[in-house]
Specification:
By secondary structure, the chain is of the alpha+beta class. Helix content is 40%, strand content 25%. It is elongated, with a radius of gyration of 22 Å.
Length: 130
């Protein structure tokens, strides 16, 4: 009988099942930090009406869906008046894709951005500094 137990043990495949996963809040923080480096854009924050104020988290205007290998990002943004929205979008998309991939190994398959407000330079600076 001892031989049977030994044979069963030898025939079993030993698998190592380790998994690295990321919470949505981690990806949201990566995206928020990546957006800090993009000129002319701020994320919509909650509180104080539809377009925020200084209350709320920096990630309120960021929603992500995180899969095993891929990430989708939805953004609600405020732009600085006079800046080119298409250029901003191109820059933020590339920055988000690079940062998420380099930090997590996850591929960003979708970046959707909705511009919800445009502020003059003074209002915009107050928004991002506040």
């Amino acid at each position: 009988m001892a031989n049977d137990i030994q044979n069963d043990f030898n025939n079993e495949e030993l698998e190592h099942r380790s998994v690295l996963t990321f919470g949505e809040q981690v990806i949201e923080k990566i995206v928020a930090t990546a957006l800090d480096g993009v000129d002319g854009v701020a994320v919509v924050r909650s509180g104080g009406g539809a377009f925020g104020g200084r209350i709320g988290k920096a990630t309120d205007g960021i929603n992500v869906e995180v899969g095993e290998k891929e990430v989708a990002v939805d953004l609600r943004l405020v732009l600085e008046f006079g800046k080119n929205a298409k250029e901003i979008y191109t820059n933020l998309k590339a920055t988000i894709e690079d940062q998420v991939m380099s930090m997590t190994g996850l591929k960003v398959v979708e970046v959707n951005a909705r511009v919800e407000d445009v502020l003059n330079s003074e209002e915009f600076r107050a928004r991002i500094e506040g």
